[in-house]
Amino acid sequence: MKKKLVSTIFFYLLVTGIALVVLFPFVWMLASSFKTQVDIISWPPKFIFSPTLQNYQKVFGEQDFLKYFFNSTIIGAVSVGLSLVLGLPAAYSISRYAQKKLAVFILLARLMPGISFLMPWYIVFSRLNLMDSYVALILSHMLISLPIVVWIMSTYFSTIPREMEESAMVDGATRQYAFFTIILPLSGPGIITATTLSFIFSWNNFMFSQVLSMEKTKTLPIAVYNFVSYAEVDWGGVMAAAVAIMAPAIVLTMIFQKYVVKGLTMGAVKG
Amino acid sequence: MSNVILKNVVKRFGSVTVVDNLSIEIRDKEFAVLVGSSGCGKTTALRMIAGLEAVTSGEIFIGDTLVNDLEPKDRDIAMVFQNYALYPHMNVRENMGFGLKIRKISKEEIDSRVQEAADILGIHELLDRKPKELSGGQRQRVAVGRAIVRKPKVFLFDEPLSNLDAKLRVAMRAEISKLHRRLGATIIYVTHDQVEAMTMADRIFIMNKGIVQQSGAPMEVYAQPANRFVAGFIGSPAMNFIEATLVSENGVLHVEAGDFRVQTPAAFSSRLESHVGKQIIFGVRPEDISLHDPSANAGEGNTVTARADVVETLGSEIFVHLSQGEHSVVARMEVPEHPLTVGQTLQVDLKMSKTHVFDKETSQAIV
């Protein structure tokens, strides 16, 4: 009994500790977004303060936040969409024809530091007059989303018994028809996982957008930079913009978290 | 005509030969069973007939058509898989109609064929359910239903009963046999269960290491196994084998292994003579060993003294594990009037006309 109590206390201490580490930056950011610049930089930190909405007014009033939101959404959605179009058949092929080497090659693209792609891209897109274009941003973001789609989906497809499409093929389907009518409808959780994760990664991407976009295609993470000038950093604005940027990602995750967990752990244990 | 012919079919995965020069013909309307232990190549052979595996070499004909290069969909076959492979997102009706829908058959025709198949299989009330709402036996029926609505030339069954419990398996065995008679179709059925093979087949093909060891009607294979593998595979409990020497005494042949000594019937002599003095494997089926009956077979030299090590009572019959020196055999007997006890010394008779002798080196049957 005593042993059980000790382990329960230890468990909650550990959970609280982890939650503190994980949540503290988020809570700090949320609190700062409602603080004035003076309250933010005051020392010792102020935990009790009179909240203000002026930071949010700056974000949504003075900045063209909706445009950046639109850009991030378009770039994220189209790059993820194209990654699904290319990645789903690729993942299926990797899963069914056991092309593990190819899969590792695709993963390498994800493991390599993104910055190593930036210079060539910058040169290519400049010469093609594609700087500050949606095409350049979408293509560069596909480097993030395509490997995620291929990896999650090839694992997912491997959990679907081969007999499913074999049965359809004996029934009269081509492999392609079987893929679209049998395999894809059974892959909902995997597709939702891949879509959610790759969209969030694209949404949060800073580096590619920083180099390849200018005013026309500027995305949300870059917009945060508008609050940073040579003279000062408008921490309130930065925090409010960060909250506004994170909100859709958090909502997406909360809606789909059940599928995300299911998709990521698929095949971990025998079903 | 919907016969299936495999000519010199070979299948290799890398350096491993799974099916080795397989040449068989399954006749029109025949219920053929490919049976063997796991890894013997039977499922691969079936999958090659279905078109799900390419042949490494050789030819496969369905009817008069060479199908080597035809897609599964163009072979006019239907297949029932071991795990049923029902489409989870479709209800039973859609599952059964899927193949017809692809072939652009009218909705009315699909409905009527699904109804007809549901009538045959007694699954009317399941038509609007999803596969996950069905029991194992019901899924099995739906999988069979999905095959029969298509009215294909050939039905392929890949261990369809192995996921069912023992009782259901017995019932489905009978149903599939009935279905075969009713449809009059060619069926190729793969199983590792020799009981299924014996009870359902018109003809059995026993496979081992990618090679057909023997084919024939079930009773023919049972009574005259071509080699030791077939003899040991078909029959439950399995045939007993004793490594022995063939000796001749005054012109009468005996099987001798230590204390074990029995006299072979005169009818075997001509075939056994050339093996006198050689090592052989003597085989006797459990049901051909019975408690000694002094009134019958007296003086035929077929009585052996042995010790009862284990007695298993099955209700209608008993299995007695007998030993004599280093030899041990299983006997299948009627329940005796006086129960046998463990450790008891028994006199048993061997039905010598039903026994088998195999060449020790080649494992081929001599008699």
Number of strands of chain B: 20
- The N- to C-terminal Cα distance of chain A equals 35 Å
Number of domain units of chain B:
2
Task: Indicate the radius of gyration of chain B in whole angstroms.
Answer: 25 Å
Instruction: Report the total helices of chain A.
Output: 13
Quaternary state reads heterodimer
Q: Decide which structural class fits the backbone of chain B.
A: alpha+beta
Tell me, what's the shape of chain A?
globular
The total tally of domains of chain A equals 1
- Identify the biggest protein-protein contact and residues per side: A-B, 16 and 23 residues
CATH level 3 topology of the largest domain in chain B: Rossmann fold
Overall body shape of chain B: elongated
* CATH architecture identity of chain A: Orthogonal Bundle
Mean pLDDT of chain B: 93
**What structural class should be given to the helix and strand makeup of chain A?**
mainly alpha
Helix content bin of chain A = over 70%
Top-tier CATH class of the largest domain in chain B: Alpha Beta
Descriptive report:
The complex is a heterodimer of chains A (271) and B (367). By secondary structure, chain A is mainly alpha-helical. Chain A has a single domain, classed as MetI-like (MetI-like fold), CATH 1.10.3720.10. Chain A has 13 helices and no strands. Chain A has helices spanning 2-33, 37-41, 54-62, 65-96, 100-111, 115-127, 134-158, 163-171, 175-183, 188-204, 207-212, 220-224, 235-265. In chain A, helix 3 (54-62) crosses helix 13. The radius of gyration of chain A is 23 Å and the shape is globular. The two termini of chain A are 35 Å apart. The radius of gyration of chain B is 25 Å and the shape is elongated. In chain B, 24% of the residues lie in helices and 35% in strands. Chain B has nine helices and 20 strands. Chain B is of the alpha+beta class and 367 residues long. Chain B folds into two domains: 4-226, Rossmann fold, CATH 3.40.50.300; 240-359, OB fold (Dihydrolipoamide Acetyltransferase, E2P), CATH 2.40.50. The mean pLDDT of chain B is 93. In chain B, the strands form four sheets. Chain B has a six-stranded mixed beta sheet, sandwiched between helices. The A-B interface holds A 161, 163-164, 166-174, 177, 182, 185-186 and B 50-52, 71-73, 77-79, 81-83, 85, 87-89, 98-99, 102-103, 146, 150, 156.
